[in-house]
Amino acid sequence: MDKQTIILLLFMKKGKPFFISSQPEFVEEPSKSKLPGIVLRLKEKILEFYKKFKERFDPQENVCSVLRFADRITIVHPKSISETEAEAIFKSFLSHSGKKHTVWMFLDSILAMMGGILTPVPGPNLFFFYPATRVVSHYFARQGIKTAKAINKKGFTINSLLDTIQENLENLNTVEAEINKLEESFRCAHILRLLS
Fold first, then answer.
1. Alpha carbon 149 to chain centroid distance?
2. Cα dihedral sign for 183, 187, 188, 189?
3. Which uninterrupted H or E stretch holds 10?
4. What are the Cα distances from residue 135, in Å, to 1, 53, 54, 77, 170?
5. Are 151 and 73 in contact (CB under 8 A)?
């Protein structure tokens, strides 16, 4: 998939930074894998599980995963946060997230291997597929963090819609129109659900 500009909206939720990312435009490319048939089917099944369950994972993990498609990152932040502060918050977020996903990828790998023992048992093998899906998700998040750290120049901007929403986080129903405009402007989805 081609690299593209990823836009991150920075909110302060309960005193902590909370990012929402633009949705990259996915173009499905035909698989050119040279893996043996059984391994390729297993890979496809795990990726199918990932696509099905990723909306249930931590939203910040999904933000990190989306960053793997970035060639440029633009961070939209409230007026109350300076560009320097926004940059420091983003660096801290990447550092913390990188450590977290490394640890969890390792632990979920162990669980997936243990669940793999049950693979011959008939029926859906959730003891293997769910931890394997989590490993993939943590891997994608780590790849996104690595990509984001490698991008030297990041853009920073403010947006009045973001300020209005930030000021009304306790009563988001009053700013639904602004949320819809923000979603359209930055190709973001589910802002109301994510901030609730």
1. 15
2. positive
3. strand 4-13
4. 21, 13, 12, 31, 35
5. yes
Closest to 181 in 3D by CA, of 161, 153, 195: 161
Asked whether the predicted pLDDT for residue 32 surpasses 70, the reply is no
Which helix (H) or strand (E) is 126 found in, with range? Answer: helix 126-150
Other Cβ atoms less than 10 A from the Cβ of 129: the count is 21
Average pLDDT on 29-43 reads 73
SS3 74: strand
Give 133-188 pLDDT, tens digit per residue: 999 999 999 999 999 999 988 999 999 999 999 999 999 999 999 999 999 999 99
The residue with greater pLDDT, 111 or 42, is 111
Q: What is the pLDDT of residue 30?
A: 55
DSSP state of 123: S
Res 40: pLDDT: 83
Q: What pLDDT is stored for residue 137 in this prediction?
A: 95
> How would residue 25 be classed by pLDDT, with cut points 50, 70 and 90?
low
**The predicted structure's pLDDT at residue 96:** 97
Any bridge partners for residue 12, and if so which? Answer: 17
Q: Which residues contact 7 (CB under 8 A, 6 or more apart)?
A: 21, 22, 73, 74, 75, 76, 186, 187, 188
Q: Is 54:21 a contact under the CB 8 Å cutoff?
A: no
**Cα–Cα dist 168/160, whole Å:** 13
- For 161, other C-beta atoms within 10 Å of its C-beta total 19
- Whether 77 contacts 12, CB under 8 Å: no
